[in-house]
Amino acid sequence: xxxxxxxxxxxxxxxxxxxxxxxxxxxxxxxxxxxxxxxxxxxxxxxxxxxxxxxxxxxxxxxxxxxxxxxxxxxxxxxxxxxxxxxxxxxxxxxxxxxxxxxxxxxxxxxxxxxxxxxxxxxxxxxxxxxxxxxxxxxxxxxxxxxxxxxxxxxxxxxxxxxxxxxxxxxxxxxxxxxxxxxxxxxxxxxxxxxxxxxxxxxxxxxxxxxxxxxxxxxxxxxxxxxxxxxxxxxxxxxxxxxxxxxxxxxxxxxxxxxxxxx
Length: 263
Description:
Layout: E1 4-11, H1 15-22, H2 29-39, E2 45-52, H3 53-56, E3 63-69, E4 72-76, H4 90-94, E5 100-107, E6 112-119, E7 122-130, E8 134-140, H5 147-150, H6 174-186, E9 205-211, H7 216-233, E10 237-240, E11 246-250, E12 255-259
């Protein structure tokens, strides 16, 4: 299991049915660009090569992939990978008024999964968990596809290469539930069996955009200034003066700055 995702979908109704309708269709470039601007208001963007949903679900850093189709909008961006999906920026939630909005975020390196569903702007389900962090967020009624996992019917079997006999920290593997969430929410999977009536993510073409944080240069300059300032100041140096008093010293010559107060 090695899948990673940062996917946000807005749908008029069932996202699975919408994706089946639009596969192999060309997304509206104007509406798609507006969708990406919604993601990061005020950020400059430039078009880059697009990719299929199967490859674009976890974009390179600083790149977003998106597509606006009739009845469904898709955005893929690493910055959507929220530990707490309930803290989704309000303007993105507002954009889902009158629609169903779903987030899927997953990272195979740390076995982390987060997904959430909003209906008409109201959060109805959010889950975020990993074996190291435990259950970070668990809001709302569990969805039908989760039932077998929470019931202990999908346990993680120990492997001989494990260094200890400790059981897996969760009652199921987050990445396995993650693939099931992709299937249930969007109708496709990245790893595993594709349903006969499912969507092949490689049939869905997304446009690519590079987004530039307008404040990044200023933050980098400020960080460099602080590092330079700390370098110039150097560490505080102490020593004993002629009378045995502890003093703070500075400079290459060891100039005494001041006597330290004695208790």
